[in-house]
Amino acid sequence: MKQLIPPAKQLMEQRMTNETTDFPTQGKCSCGAVEYQLTKKPMFVHCCHCTYCQRETGSAFAVNALIEHSNVHIIKGAITSIVNPTNSGAGQTIVRCSTCHSALWSHYGAAKERVAFLRVGTLNNPNLCPPDIHIFTSTKQAWVQLNDGAPVVEEYYRRSEYWPEESVARYKNALEP
Predict the structure, then answer these.
(1) pTM (2 decimals)?
(2) I need a surface site. Which of 17, 37, 66, 123 has the fewest CB within 10 A?
(3) Which three-class secondary structure state does DSSP give residue 20?
(4) CA separation for the pair 5, 158 (Å, rounded)
(5) CA contacts within 13 A on the Cβ side of 26
(6) What is the pLDDT of the chain when averaged over all its residues?
(7) Would you list the domain boundaries of the chain?
(8) Please, is 170 exposed, middle or buried when counting C-beta atoms within 10 Å of its C-beta (0-12, 13-18, 19+)?
(9) pLDDT tens, residue by residue, 20-48
């Protein structure tokens, strides 16, 4: 029996299989004191429109590439971590450059330190990681137009409905001790 794939998941499978030859890739903070390398393509990319992301970034949204922390390597520089509040109350750890304090990635949720929510804007080529989904759009700014073909959800979502199977497997492996 052939398994039917929901249209949103089918689109994600297609997007995730394109352009994997650009990895590994690198990124850096604003001042250049910290440089890092991603050794694999991220599992999934969120464009988050929640009010916390808006306030933290001073922008209308944050674009975060979810990747196993083991695939993020500091090439040079020193980082520092701070804990910020979240809607869940669990907080998030934001990793920043020790010099310019640019946010590089965060850790939060069930994955904690095992998965990095990497700030796509810190990549040398942010075009490598377009959003795979827009989340928490119930609080997006009215002037933001979402017409890039990525799924749009009002709050959060179920990974099984949107993530490619390979990415779900990677995420589960990252959570194993």
Answers:
(1) 0.86
(2) 17
(3) helix
(4) 15
(5) 9
(6) 89
(7) 7-17+26-175
(8) buried
(9) 678 999 999 999 999 999 999 999 999 99
75 has pLDDT over 80: yes
Residue 143 tokens, joined: 């002037």
Q: Are 116 and 105 in contact (CB under 8 A)?
A: yes
Q: What is the pLDDT of residue 8?
A: 53
Total number of residues shown for the chain: 177
The pLDDT of residue 87 is above 90: no
Strand-pair partners of 36: 27, 74
Look at the block and give the residue holding tokens 């250049």.
32
CATH class of 7-17+26-175: alpha beta
Helix, strand or coil, per DSSP, at residue 136: coil
Structure token digits, residue 47: 């464009």
Q: Can you tell me the mean pLDDT for 75-102?
A: 91
C-beta of residue 100 within 8 angstroms of C-beta of residue 33? yes
Token pair in block for residue 49: 């429109």
